[in-house]
Amino acid sequence: MSVLTTPKITFYEAPLGISSTKVTIEGSWSPSQFVGHMSTKPLIQMRLHTWKQQYMSTIASVCLDWVVINANGTTKNILMLKLSDKTFAAYLQEETFMQYIQQVLDDANIYNVHNSFNNYTQAT
Asked: Is the pTM of this model over 0.90?
């Protein structure tokens, strides 16, 4: 008899800075109590990348999202990292991991989407 288990997803978030020349993390990763689709806080969510990441002898599924949330009437940009293995917390500050995240940010079209979203919200 086999047992089906649902993987436990661990969420981390970091503040995201967006300028006309660079999109980058502006702080450290911290555990998140993100409630996702059932919350009124997320205004926009954009999937940036998914991949498999190895840390020591473990391989985890990873998902990276850019999320704009409503923080008491103002918008806040955050980077949301979802991991299928909670033992990866120590790996989040590794230089090679952070370089990879920055490469994903550099390749994404965040700035243009951010401007379009801001133009829309300011017009309404």
From this structure: no
